[in-house]
Write a structure and sequence with these properties.
The complex is a heterodimer of chains A (about 150) and B (about 425). Chain A is mainly alpha-helical. Chain A is built from 7 helices and no strands. Chain B is mainly alpha-helical and about 425 residues long.
């Protein structure tokens, strides 16, 4: 029975998964924050990661999610809106899920998805519209459930 | 003459010093600056010739400070600075100039044309002929402390996020620290990985550092819009916080114009030398490398190149430091043609990115970067300015070029040798 209580164990467990399973569990992390964005391209990327898409399908999903992350970013000098910024981080998380290896920092899409999903939740809390939830702890539970399934 | 035109003329007169007079009087009308300008080159529009962009300032110089100009003024023949002229030149002064300084480099008589554009902006902003986007950014910078409206609450949230992800404590308001780290709003909003990278590198190098809750913002909208008063106010906040904490060095982040504002314009704006050093993060990291405190392991697999932010390399002279750092982690490094001090601007500097109406023009300007990249075909692109980074990402996407962009500090952190030790 896997039990994960900190990021060290979390990362170690994620690193132990093959790329398909990293994408699948990463999709679960992104799914948890998906209501923070209304963008079909992002949803399509999460769907693609969940069903283990490959080749052209994966590539198309990545291009859509990456374009979404660029569209949702805050322009330099523009007034920041943390709700929109939460959407930007969800788009980044989704793009990381389906990205080719060169685009993924640390080489682990699930970890990148997790970090960006946490930042999305953090962004939402900045304007005081939602209490900052412990997204990392929620992710520990998701991963433990995934490993134990 | 309207009140607005009068305001502009008076502000122009305040900007016209010996250097400006010498520049205008020594211009030989060769047109070399046109071919050095990103905006002229990519559009072919002669209005974008750098020296032509200075026509309002030149008219005031000629009519007020030259013999023939004064005589022409007396008989009503001197070309006038009117509201229409100022309105027409707003686009040329802001949207079509990133203050990259490439024109200044090629001028055969040594005119600092970009420096004069900066001065012309003082008059434009005094008369209210500045873009709405930059006005908003400047207002927020003065009132809230950040051009993008980022508050300390947002920085605190990011600190919490980084502390959770890394297990490191981020020092805040630590008296007597060696380094005070500034960030740009872009890094706080779009690239939180920058703070994480700095925290991990400084922890590994056992560096004494701090953030200041009173001055975390490095960007300076006053420099971009062309208001010395605003620029002075924003620099003063950093200076006051740094001197209150008694830090030895203030670090400008991966942001081009923030470095210009802090390091080169700052002391002149406040009228005295700093009691601390001002350095760019890459200068500090290169010092750590030289001292053996920045240790990395492994190399990137891809062929990579580096985009020099104009304010860093051309206006600031930080040329070799990034390359020494890149070579620590990249074996297949290739410089683009014209890299270094003659590098082509990304197209979004000098406040251009904050001007919504300039969105199409800045993407047209990106074509110069596109050609540079096509010449060396990198698999990954490194830079050291968050504003350049977002423009590069947009430009690459627009041109269907599949090249990931990464910040240099962040890239180094990915290869960092970290040992277990007390958290810093």
């Amino acid at each position: 029975m896997a039990e994960i209580q900190n990021d060290t164990a979390f990362r170690k467990a994620l690193d132990g998964l093959d790329i398909d399973r990293q994408r699948k569990v990463g999709a679960m992390f992104v799914r948890a924050v998906l209501p923070l964005i209304a963008d079909e391209r992002v949803t399509a990327a999460v769907d693609a990661a969940e069903r283990g898409a490959s080749g052209d399908m994966l590539s198309a999903a990545f291009q859509g999610a990456r374009r979404a992350s660029i569209d949702w970013h805050t322009r330099c000098g523009a007034e920041g809106d943390w709700k929109e910024q939460a959407a930007y981080f969800v788009a980044r998380a989704a793009a990381a899920l389906v990205a080719p290896p060169a685009h993924v920092k640390s080489g682990n899409p699930a970890w990148q998805a997790a970090v960006n999903a946490r930042m999305a939740r953090t962004s939402l809390s900045i304007d005081g519209e939602a209490a900052a939830t412990r997204e990392n702890e929620a992710q520990y539970r998701i991963l433990a459930g995934f490993l134990n399934a | 003459m309207t009140d607005r035109a009068k305001l502009a003329i008076n502000a122009f007169k305040e900007q016209i010093d010996g250097a400006v007079s010498a520049y205008f009087s020594s211009c030989v009308h060769c047109g070399l600056c046109a071919h050095a300008c990103l905006f002229f080159n990519e559009t072919g529009d002669p209005r974008y010739t750098p020296i032509h962009k200075l026509e309002p300032l030149r008219r005031v110089w000629w009519s007020e400070y030259t013999l023939f100009g004064k005589l022409a003024s007396l008989i009503g023949l001197a070309p006038k600075v009117t509201d229409k002229l100022l309105a027409d030149w707003q686009e040329l002064t802001y949207n079509a100039c990133s203050l990259c300084g490439r024109c200044s480099m090629v001028c055969p008589v040594g005119n600092d044309i970009a420096g004069m554009i900066r001065k012309q902006r003082e008059g434009m902003v005094a008369a209210g002929y500045s873009p709405e986007g930059l006005q908003g950014a400047s207002t927020r910078a003065v009132k809230i402390g950040s051009p993008m409206g980022v508050t300390w609450k947002a920085v605190s949230a990011q600190i919490g996020h980084v502390e959770n992800d890394t297990g490191l404590a981020i020092p805040v308001d630590r008296q007597g620290a060696d380094y005070m780290v500034l960030m740009s709003s872009m890094e706080i909003m779009n690239y939180p990985e920058y703070l994480e990278a700095v925290a991990r590198i400084f922890n590994a190098a056992d560096v004494s550092w701090t953030l200041s809750s009173e001055a975390f913002e490095a960007t300076n909208s006053g420099i971009q819009i062309g208001s010395a008063d605003i620029a002075r106010e924003l620099v003063s906040r950093v200076v006051n916080a740094a001197e209150k904490l008694g830090v030895k060095t203030v670090i400008s982040p991966e942001c081009g114009h923030a470095y210009t504002a802090l390091r080169w314009e700052g002391p002149n704006l406040i009228g005295r030398p700093y009691k601390f050093k001002a350095r760019h993060i890459l200068e500090v990291l290169d010092d750590l490398r030289a001292a053996g405190k920045l240790k990395t392991e492994g190399f990137e697999d891809e062929r990579m190149t580096f985009h020099d932010p104009c304010q860093l390399v051309r206006r600031g002279g930080v040329l070799e430091q990034p390359r020494r750092l890149v070579r620590m982690v990249v074996k297949d490094f290739v410089d683009m043609p014209d890299a270094g001090k003659m590098n082509w601007c990304c197209g979004a500097g000098g406040g251009v990115s904050a001007i919504e109406e300039a969105a199409e023009l800045k993407l047209t300007a990106f074509n110069a970067k596109k050609r540079q990249l096509e010449a060396v075909k990198p698999e990954k692109l490194i830079t050291a300015c968050a504003n350049c980074r977002i423009q590069l990402e947009e430009g690459l996407e627009e041109n269907n070029m599949d090249i990931p962009v990464v910040g240099l500090t962040e890239l180094l952190a990915e290869h960092l040798v970290e040992t277990e030790k007390a958290e810093g």
